Amino acid sequence: MQGDLLAQLDGMLVVSCQAESRMPLDAPEHIAAIARSVILGGAAGVRIEGVANIDAVRRRTGVPIIGLIKARRADTEIYITPTLANVASIIEAGADIVALDATNRPRPTDLEAMFGAIAAKGRLSMGDVSTLDEGKRAIDAGASLISTTMAGYTPYSNQQRGPDFQLMGQLAGAGLPFVAEGRIWTPQEAVRCFELGARFIVVGGAITRPDAITRGFVDLVASWSADPQLKRNKS
Ligand SMILES: CC(=O)N[C@H](C=O)[C@@H](O)[C@H](O)[C@H](O)COP(=O)(O)O
User: Fold this and answer.
1) How many helices (H) and strands (E) does the chain have?
2) Distance 162 CA to ligand 1 centre (A)
3) pTM for the complete prediction?
4) CATH number at residue 172
5) Ligand 1 pocket, 192 CB below 6 A?
6) Domain total for the chain?
7) 3-state secondary structure of 64
8) Complex ipTM, two decimals?
9) How far does the centroid of ligand 1 lie from the alpha carbon of residue 149, in Å?
10) Which pLDDT tens digit goes with each residue over 147-165?
């Protein structure tokens, strides 16, 4: 069953359907509608945050769900699925794969216990990492897969605007089963991830965040309007 699930996702596009809290799309029925839309477009799976959203998407779709809970806490910087209680809720809500922060920062529960609890329930786990060392450590601790999700979001990882292709090359070189995720904004970048050895890719904002997509257009339009040279070249 787990092998089937991975075979279903191999070489495919998974779309992360998330809305920041208090954004207009931040409601389970909206997230489910986005999920159904991206599936119509060919997404092989979805990545969904929060119990109510996972539940709403599970009821309306049959594709694999990567589930996570974002929970900010005062005692740790880990915010993607920090606790065993989060793992239990995600599985209860119907996720097939549980994603969690697998960076080397101090955490409430150790990685072996987190990945062990997911495996004990017959689900796959995805360790969200930011460096090669974290990828190795997550696989050693029992992760089914690792994802480049956290690259650029820890102070010690590569800080850049685009996807972390360097990290992908390192993970592939070490023979680790990795998923490419984080700041993939164009189909060309998506193809590059596969060329570097990604099992599958996860794209979020470029597809499911209308505010961020609009901002990209607005910024370009604004710089064109403000630049007399560009305007002159046009006329
Ligand atoms: C770092 C972090 O918290 N990443 C989150 C993980 O679930 C999401 O906010 C991202 O949207 C997701 O990883 C997809 O990435 P992008 O939206 O860049 O395609």
Assistant:
1) 11, 8
2) 13
3) 0.96
4) 3.20.20.70
5) no
6) 1
7) coil
8) 0.99
9) 6
10) 999 999 999 999 999 999 9
